[in-house]
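REVIEWER CHECKLIST
Item 1: Sequence provided? yes
Item 2: Single chain? yes
Item 3: Sequence as submitted:
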Amino acid sequence: MAGVLDGSLDALGRLLWHARLSRWVFRIGRRNPKVILYHACEPTESPFIRDLGVNTPPEEFAAHLDFLHRHYQVVAVDELAAGTAPPNAAVITFDDGYRSVLEHAAPLLEARGMPATVYLVTHVVDNDDLVWVNELNWLLVTHPAETAPIVTEQLGLPLATPSDEVVAAVLQRYEPALVQRLLTAMWAAVPSSRNEVLATLELYLRWDEIRDMEGRRFSFGSHSATHPNLRGLEPADVAREVDTSVETMVRELGSCGSFAYPFGFTEERITAALQSRNFSSVMVVGGSNYGAQPTAIARTPLTGTSPAVLFSQLEVVEPAKAGLRVAAGWVRRRRRRAR
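Item 4: Structure as written out by the authors:
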């Protein structure tokens, strides 16, 4: 059902664009800041992220920036959090802290004078370790014959399940012990050693690179310490993930005022933990920022290069879905009162 709704709204957005009605839609949505979510910016996907849907190649990213330059005012996340963003504001964010942001996205942003914010998984900065998703995907992509049977049997999946669907299944059933058990068994089955992979790893940013980027209109926030599914953790472990990450950033960079939920996943107890830590801004995934609070800033992943497609995603699909959710909530509350 969700796919049908998305497709219908996307078709409507493209129709509005080609009918030359987009300027009226831009005007209607000018008080709804658009926050864009990116991850990696690799010309060719490495096995660590291949087929995960988290890569925006440089030429596609450049097309996005040109679209944003024509139709929005790109501002820093602090302006949005402070309520000082201008009409038709847009904010650019990256999750995870991939080095490809420095190598390929930063030059394109700097050429256009645009700021951006990167949310760091602090435990993997300096490439001394791997985010479990990248590690799992690398093992599945580079050694499928040895590793796929281990994971699919454990999860009760067909052996031919694509690697991205296997990763998604692990995410949904996330428990730290399960992930560690799978990775340990997978490494034992392949000819490579984990230490050999880490010895040559250049997947993530380094602290000296991050400090240099701060002087180039980049800001940085926390994306947790190890990138877990926070919903699969006990309250004390949620607090440890957040606090460890913030303490590391304060030690390395002097401050940490913004947070992005790993995978965009949250629930009431996690939201409460974040509120007690006084972040100036907290990022979620999906939704609309019309009248939104800085502690729940909605972000939209962008795909494609066509202006009609980008317009549809930013101005029609996500705002309309957010409006429908609000309306559905209102109807549910009315029905409860009527009972």
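Item 5: Key structural point noted by reviewer: The mean pLDDT is 93.
Item 6: Recommendation: ____
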